[in-house]
Design a protein that fits this description.
It is built from 15 helices and 18 strands. With 485 residues, it is of the alpha+beta class. It binds one RNA strand of 75 nucleotides through helix 1, strand 1, strand 2, strand 3 and helix 5.
Length: 485
RNA sequence: GGGGGCGUAGCUCAGGGGUAGAGCAACGGCCUUUUAAGCCGCAGGUCGGAGGUUCAAAUCCUCCCGCCCUCACCA
């Protein structure tokens, strides 16, 4: 009721403004500067017109200070009774509220405390608010409100503004780097017939006009590779993807993945490119190759470690997967080592290796590490290694125990691909609903011929989470999905 | 889905069986240099919801809703 009371008082102010001939919701306002530009101006500059949300108001009898703010910056404004007249001054004091959008025109001056300020000659209400803002120095603390009403968090928290601006900058920087290295940005379908390109459960929906079941993509991979068939030699997509799996601090169902594909590269070329790309991104966005995460300095400047899945497991668990030629042998070794893996009995050898890795090795990989050479049955779209046909030429970049990048030399042999997808289809038929579907349309494209390719995918939300020192993806996604109230 | 924590004024938080509290914001005043402005005054609550125990419940119990953490599931 108190809030409703407050709202009513503000509605009354709107009426009062209308009676005084002021439109509380005008059509436009001509600015001469943005706030972050205006606060760089010379003292004495006249006719400066700025606009923003009023986030503070400190009235005195004949002089009032306010602050206009937007995502990029803020600037102080001052209303002087003797300049704008008693009537106007009183109307402002009676009708203005913290939270209102205001436009002002005036001269830049310096206050006694030395702050550049606009001395308001004219002002306009640009958007009256009806609701109060969060409290001014603790800001918004309630996680639920932060997520449900992110706009309040962004208004109240400079850290949050910085974090989301950095997200944008990271994405821009990645685009720029790829653009400058001959990649074409493309868009491929989000709604599609088959959910492929990764091992994950998709979201299903229904297409009314075509009366068919469609899926939200889990990865853009097979479409991007079709474009390589078409003659593109380097493509990328900033791809929103959807996976109908569990939700936790490092998994969201709706997330952003950057994928690129480069013809004529292998995964070694791709690792080199990845290091250069990261160096550029970190220097551009952070000005440093070292970042602090949970009290640890992560150093991207040194040569990144390379660890094969086999080496990592051997070191951490003492288990040599090469000595376990099949799932049964490996299962025995795992239980002999006293390690428990859920549903171990139902997993194949590759899946066991993967579970074992996630359970023991991954969280120990703090410094940037290329984890290489994954079992072939976990990588149905990756090229079989020439050196060991049970392995793929694949790498993941792991930082702070989080998988950030996944990449490989792509499988371009249509016959091998068909066999591998048939194996997946068999798993699927046996009840594994994350196994990949046989995708004839993709095989048809492959059979028209593909060059050597190396592809790459990075979780944008994850890298931004790390770079901003957060530990939950939701803190770098403006509006994470929550339950209905 | 299991386990744990949390939910009190618009916001930030106290209070943990005995009359519902503070600061900020709001509202009425004073104030020409504030920036967490200051001072005086005033108002604001179905204590997440529904049951129960009790002479008495924000407080104890049960269920439900929401959020967070964790485990499980999972690129």
């Amino acid at each position: 009721m108190a809030e409703e009371d407050l709202r009513q008082k503000r509605l009354n102010k709107i009426e009062r403004l209308r009676e005084a001939g002021c439109n509380p919701y005008p059509e436009r306002f001509e600015r001469t500067h943005r706030l972050n530009e205006a606060c760089q101006l010379e003292e004495g500059t006249e006719g400066v017109r700025i606009a923003g949300r009023l986030t503070a108001f400190r009235p005195f009898g004949k002089l009032s200070f306010g602050r206009l703010q937007d995502i990029h910056g803020s600037m102080q404004i001052a209303f002087q009774r003797d300049l704008i007249g008693t009537e106007t001054y009183q109307l402002i004091k009676k009708t203005i509220d913290i939270g209102d959008f205001i436009g002002v025109e005036g001269e830049v001056f310096r206050t006694k405390t030395g702050e550049l300020t606009i001395r308001v000659a004219h002002h306009e209400f640009l958007g009256k608010s009806l609701r109060p803002l969060p409290e001014k120095w603790h800001g918004l603390q309630d996680r639920e409100t932060i997520y449900r009403q992110r706009y309040l968090d962004l208004i109240a928290s400079p850290e949050s503004r910085e974090r989301f601006l950095l997200r944008t900058q990271v994405i821009q920087t990645l685009r720029r780097y790829l653009d400058e290295h001959g990649f074409q940005e493309v868009d491929t379908p989000i709604l599609c017939n088959k959910a492929t390109g990764a091992l994950a459960r998709p979201f299903k929906t229904h297409h009314n006009a075509l009366n068919m079941e469609v899926f939200l993509r889990i990865a853009p991979e097979t479409y991007l590779k079709r474009l390589i068939v078409a003659g593109y030699d380097r493509v990328y997509e900033m791809a929103r993807c959807f996976r109908n799996e569990g939700m936790d601090p490092s998994h969201l169902q709706d997330f952003t993945m950057l994928e690129y594909y480069a013809a004529y590269w292998n995964y070694e070329d791709n690792m080199r490119f990845t290091e250069e790309l990261f160096r550029f991104m970190l220097e551009t966005c952070l000005g440093s190759l070292q970042i602090e995460i949970a009290g640890e300095t992560i150093d991207f400047s040194k040569k990144w470690k390379r660890v094969s899945l086999r080496e990592g497991l051997l070191e951490e668990t003492g288990i040599d997967v090469d000595e376990c030629p099949d799932a049964d042998a490996l299962r025995e070794r795992i239980s002999a080592a006293g390690i428990e893996i859920e549903k171990a009995g139902t997993l194949g050898r590759g899946a066991l290796i993967d579970s074992l890795y996630k359970k023991t090795v991954r969280k120990k990989l703090i410094q940037p590490t290329f984890l290489v050479q994954h079992p072939i049955d976990l990588s149905p779209l990756a090229r079989r290694s020439d050196k060991d046909t049970n392995l793929t030429d694949r790498f993941q970049l792991v930082v702070a125990g989080w998988e950030i990048v996944n990449a490989y030399s792509e499988l371009v042999d249509p016959i091998d691909q068909r066999n591998r997808l048939e194996e997946q289809a068999a798993l699927r038929a046996a009840g594994d609903d994350e196994a990949m579907e046989l995708d004839e349309d993709y095989l048809l494209a492959m059979e028209h011929g593909m060059p050597p390719i190396s592809g790459w995918g990075m979780g944008i939300d994850r890298i931004v989470t790390l770079l901003t020192g957060q530990d939950n993806l939701r803190d770098v996604v403006p509006f994470p999905l929550l339950k209905n109230l």
